């Protein structure tokens, strides 16, 4: 009897434990599911709180482009560098403080990433219509799409609802894809953030506009292998680039990434590669690196053959990239000033300064 009671009590305990475990697991699954739902971005996120946000961003971008023809390219690059560094949470926009080590000074960004003032202007315009609602991370996403569209590229529905982070990751920023990486490393860096080979080739197509400094490709021009220039560089293009980037010259001189249509978002980047007219080693390697191009060359040729196929893959890649490690719901915040986390002493000062600028502008 005692044994039976012990058995039944242990059975009960066991059943109770099993039940608890089941409940805990169910609860966990529910939480996970809830988080998953919460983590989803939405095209209608600002429909009731800031319905004109996309129009406001576009208006500011058009204004900026009138004095800076390169700005669209620079802005999409900001989105790429932000998303690849701990996710699309606007960490790249944060300035140095005692607590924050700004990613702006990491190797790939320093004296290279640009457009921060334009993002400030967009944020100010958005804040004046919808105060405290739209995150800097979403502004980067909307600006990236608008930049492509305003450069004659495709338009797409941007998923929204990202929150801004409160931290930076200088080490990760230093490890962004580099023009000195080989295809194997590039593929790995894309895989690490959930992007595949087609995404790598399609997103590299953003080099259909914008500029690159001589130092990022000069090795190809003089001493690539055995003291010779890169054999996968068209000789006419080589001569032109040697003129623009002489040995021992100024490494920061700018060059069009797309020699054919430098400010238009089209598929000429890929036809350039077919003609050995890619600017960076990492561009040309997608087609020409004989030992490693098997996973990338077919997509280069597909995109060169049909611009619509490129646009479709590019949009898919941008949406995937825009989903990398996003903060949503109660995670993160909507910064008042894209350069500082909320509550930092600088954020208040910046908001006050902006407000006083706005009121003096109104007075004028
Ligand atoms: C695949 C790996 C990539 C590498 C190694 C790479 C590297 C570079 C380099 C070295 C520059 C020139 C920077 C300078 O000279 O200051 C540049 C510019 C640029 N990159 Fe990339 N990039 C990559 C992928 C991407 C992606 C995925 C995008 C966007 C989706 C992008 C968009 C741009 C744009 C638009 C510019 C011109 C920016 C301007 O004119 O301000 N790149 N990239």
UniProtKB/TrEMBL annotation:
Its keywords, alphabetically, are: Calcium, Disulfide bond, Glycoprotein, Heme, Hydrogen peroxide, Iron, Membrane, Metal-binding, Oxidoreductase, Peroxidase, Pyrrolidone carboxylic acid, Transmembrane, Transmembrane helix
Domain of life assignment: Eukaryota
PROSITE patterns assigned: PEROXIDASE_1, PEROXIDASE_4
As one GO molecular function, the record gives: heme binding
Q: Does the keyword tRNA-binding apply?
A: no
One GO term (biological process): response to oxidative stress
The active site consists of 81
Please state every residue range assigned to the domain named Plant heme peroxidase family profile: 40-342
Q: Enumerate the transmembrane spans.
A: 12-34
Q: Where is this site: Transition state stabilizer?
A: 77
Q: Which InterPro entries match?
A: Haem_peroxidase, Peroxidase_pln, Peroxidases_heam-ligand_BS, Secretory_peroxidase
- Sequence similarity: Belongs to the peroxidase family. Ascorbate peroxidase subfamily.
This chain belongs to the protein called Plant heme peroxidase family profile domain-containing protein
What organism does the record attribute this protein to?
Zingiber officinale
